[in-house]
Design goal:
The protein is mostly helical. The chain contains six helices and two strands; from the N terminus they run αβααβααα. It is elongated.
């Protein structure tokens, strides 16, 4: 009788402890640091879901466990709060750093100086070089306004 009660208590404790352990492990998984190496650009389009952003991170070689990453983001309430833009992450960046940037909208920026009097045909190549886009694509955008 006592061993049955003891087994039942052990199972109950195990049922409570296992989810707690999973949450703790997920939280620690997000604490690896800022990463090393060159910055890898990742674009998150407007209206993209967290799953789509995760797919972009995987395609860029920044994540190797996308399901756990999504679970981590859900656990901290960040999977519905990402902002669009082009981000820069280093390989090995922590999940918390990646999620923090996606939530805060800390996108890549650059400084662009356009001399007074320049025309769009002069601006387009400079803008394209900074954005990493073809000049024709930038020109189409500029001419459309």
């Amino acid at each position: 009788m006592k061993s049955e009660e003891s087994d039942q208590v052990n199972r109950s404790v195990g049922k409570l402890f296992f989810p707690f352990l999973v949450v703790v492990l997920l939280l620690f998984a997000g604490c690896a640091g800022e990463g090393q190496g060159p910055v890898v650009k990742v674009r998150v389009p407007a209206g993209a879901s967290f799953a789509q952003a995760t797919d972009s991170l995987v395609a860029a070689g920044l994540l190797d466990r996308p399901r756990l990453f999504r679970l981590y983001a859900r656990a901290i309430g960040a999977d519905q709060q990402i902002r669009p833009g082009t981000y820069g992450f280093r390989e090995g960046a922590s999940w918390s750093a990646i999620v923090g940037d996606l939530r805060a909208g800390r996108v890549l920026t650059f400084r662009l100086v356009i001399p007074e009097g320049w025309e769009l045909r002069q601006i387009a190549p400079r803008l394209a070089a900074n954005l990493g886009l073809p000049v024709d694509e930038v020109w189409t955008f500029l001419a459309d306004t």
